[in-house]
Amino acid sequence: VGSRFSGTDEESRRRDAALRPKWLREVIGQRKVAERLAVAVAAAKKLGEPLGHILFDGPPGLGKTTFATVLPNELGTSIQMTSGPALSKPADLLPFLTNLEEGAILFIDEIHRLPRVVEEFLYPAMEDYRIDIVLGEGVHARTITMRLKRFTLIGATTRSGLLSGPMRDRFKMHEHLEFYSVEELAQIIRVNAAKLQTPITPEAAEELARRSRGTPRIANARLYWARSYAAARHEGVITADIARAALDMAEVDPEGLDKNDRRYLETLIELFGGGPTGVEALAATLNLAADTLADEIEPYLLREQYIIRSPRGRIATPRAWRALGKLPPATPSS
Ligand code: ADP
Q1: Which residues contact 93 (CB under 8 A, 6 or more apart)?
Q2: Sign of the dihedral defined by the CA atoms of residues 66, 71, 76, 81, in that order
Q3: 19 CB under 6 A from ligand 1?
Q4: Which atom of ligand 1 is nearest to the CA of 188?
Q5: Radius of gyration of the chain (CA)
Q6: Is the C-beta atom of 242 inside 6 A of ligand 1?
Q7: Which residues does residue 130 pair with via DSSP β-bridges, in sequence order?
Q8: Using CA atoms, how far apart are residues 288 and 291, in angstroms rounded to an integer?
Q9: Is this complex's ipTM strictly greater than 0.90?
């Protein structure tokens, strides 16, 4: 179920790859992060050293993979990509580590989902560019050490809190990606519409941007949908009216909340009286994994203050009640 929200299905992966910036200067927004990376890249080149290991964290679709794939271009090196769930044992990492050329990048997505044994196997690789391989068992076991080329590990995670302390400490840079402003998303939409040779008015780009949950991946999906809608029902140009009609049809409400956001708020308000409600109870009622709620739905609702987190669980704010067309309950103090 989670993949539907994160847009990690094949179709959206292909679209993401087609629209992904190739150079740091093409990356829109996240200026501070981009500047720090530019410094790190320039230093690595001048000093002839590999880039230090970097950890990116933040909600899905905000550009973690984009930054990771831009860096090898800037450095003139190669990248190998894998993910935490794909690495169930240390041996799964071996082909990646031994294929790395000097200064190359190894990207591990969802690094918080690495099994502990694999994580521990990575420590000496990150620290000293070596791995220890244990051969045999019990009293006959012996360890051989293998040297690796100097490389850069880039980890991406939606939840840096789930990463072990020792793992986190081994990254030289920690970069947190934040939600994008409407202006930044509108710029991304205009640039990507041009890549797709789709005419779009500035007002339409802003309408799509306002309804994209602060997330470039969602902005891309809204653009693709509006483009199809404009082609099917009109002459192909995306105007503000066409953008609005396309998003209404996709059940994205005027504030930009989608079906899942509304289901979440409806459950919290109609079933649980607005909370406080534990995330497990919400997840069970919505028939979704608690991780999906915490990673993909709640960060935006929290940021936009539709909900707040309390020690006893999630609470709907007056804004959430109003978004559902309901009158917020009077607060006890007023
Ligand atoms: P994450 O790895 O954080 O889930 P991605 O890097 O895959 O997110 O981003 C999804 C898509 O959004 C990318 O393919 C790209 O088209 C777009 N995108 C993300 N961040 C930016 C950015 N800063 N500037 C332009 N496009 C972006």
Answers
A1: 82, 87, 118, 121, 122
A2: negative
A3: yes
A4: 25
A5: 23
A6: no
A7: 147
A8: 8
A9: yes
